[in-house]
Write a structure and sequence with these properties.
single chain, 399 residues, alpha/beta, 16 strands, 20% strand, elongated
Length: 399
């Protein structure tokens, strides 16, 4: 389109010529419309024939075209359906091939994919979830759970992480790792992010009224929320509406997203931190760890991924990695949260190494808002009893 319709038309003719040269006289080549072509391969001599033809087509179309002194390069995605396994009529085969083609597109430029029933099922669920997200935002089918975070020095709950959950009336409980990528793909993640922020503000108000004061609650953010360029102003407006100070909302972004959108997020992160938010890198150590971004970005908190916590203090590799992350973070002025803490030994080790905060099933699973204050009381009671027992053991050993 940018080079003119005449160039586009000529490109389609050249593509046709190249493909035609790879097919047998008995094969059929047609153009469905736009840049979509269909090929019918009959009387296949071997099962791998469609794959080999697809590989040759991709190879020949990858080479650039010279049209009206302009060099043009294109990508090719091919979906393959085979009769009778995938269908016995024209419409069924085209539908299956089209589904497979979108699978090929997801693999990147210039790829092919065979149709599989599970692919179609997954695609249908994908579409259903996208539609249901829009409906559920309006019908309030989303809800939040909160996981307590303790200060390791005082052994008191001082923070929490807000985690979005979704129980659809027909689809049931849909995990975040399934619906969040779909929300990002269809541009719904900003609406979800604002919903989480608003409901976290409401929770802070309720917790304060119940006498369960928290320094801050962390919410997970998507890199796509930063791309809009007005995240700071949107957050400022919402927090002002609920009378919540910025310092009581921590923003978590994964290490992978920080690096993937580094240029686009840095300025917005600076604005958000200047407002008073603490910026936390989640799942640290599982992405593309880079000292350069740790130095450059306005971070406050590093969260050690649970995969490095679950085997301490017995796995020496995990011990070394966790110890190094704590020391590095502290040397750069960052606080450290260990997630996935499940045993007393892990808790004691992290305290001895100077880790600042801990969260995990040892303390509590994520709980509904209505149960959070009671859960905090229970954690404080259990940790107090634990401390008393430790002191008794130490006194007995000394005597």
């Amino acid at each position: 389109d940018t080079l003119g319709h005449d160039v586009g038309d000529e490109l389609l003719k050249r593509v046709t010529t190249r493909i035609r040269g790879l097919l047998r006289d008995s094969d059929v080549l047609g153009r469905l419309g736009g840049d979509e072509f269909v090929i019918i391969l009959e009387a296949l001599e071997e099962d791998l024939a469609p794959q080999r033809v697809s590989e040759r087509i991709i190879e020949t179309l990858t080479k650039s075209f010279l049209i009206h002194s302009q060099e043009v390069t294109i990508g090719t995605s091919i979906g393959i359906a085979i009769s009778p396994d995938d269908g016995t009529d024209r419409d069924a085969l085209l539908k299956c091939a089209d589904s497979a083609m979108y699978t090929a597109k997801n693999h990147g430029a210039s790829a092919f994919s065979f149709y599989r029933e599970e692919v179609a099922t997954k695609a249908a669920r994908h579409i259903s979830i996208e539609s249901a997200i829009r409906h559920s935002l309006a019908e309030q089918e989303f809800f939040l759970e909160f996981q307590p975070i303790i200060d390791l020095k005082t052994r008191e709950v001082v923070k929490a992480e807000a985690l979005i959950r979704w129980r659809h009336s027909e689809l049931g409980l849909i995990p975040p790792d399934e619906f969040i990528p779909i929300a990002e793909e269809y541009g719904l993640i900003v609406q979800i992010g604002e919903w989480v922020l608003r409901n976290t503000c409401k929770a802070i108000e309720q917790f304060d009224q119940e006498g369960c004061y928290l320094e801050s609650i962390a919410i997970n953010t998507s890199s796509l929320e930063f791309v809009t360029g007005n995240m700071a102003s949107r957050f400022e407006g919402i927090l002002k509406e609920y009378g919540v100070t910025h310092s009581r909302i921590d923003l978590e972004i994964t290490e992978r997203n920080v690096l993937g959108e580094c240029e686009g997020t840095e300025a917005e992160l600076q604005r958000l931190r200047s407002l008073g938010h603490s910026i936390c890198v989640d799942d640290f150590g599982t992405g593309y760890s880079s000292l350069s971004y740790m130095k450059r970005l306005p971070l406050n908190i590093v969260k050690i991924d649970k995969s490095f916590i679950q085997n301490i203090p017995y796995d020496q590799n995990d011990v070394a990695i966790s110890d190094a992350i704590i020391k590095l973070s502290h040397s750069l002025g960052y606080q450290v949260v260990a997630e996935g803490v499940e045993t007393d030994e892990q808790l004691e080790y992290l305290l001895a190494k100077g880790c600042d905060y801990a969260q995990g099933y040892l303390l509590s699973k994520p709980v509904r808002q209505s149960a959070f204050a009671h859960t905090v009381e229970d954690i404080h009671r259990r940790l107090s009893l634990s401390d008393t027992l430790v002191q008794r053991i130490r006194r007995a050993a000394f005597q």
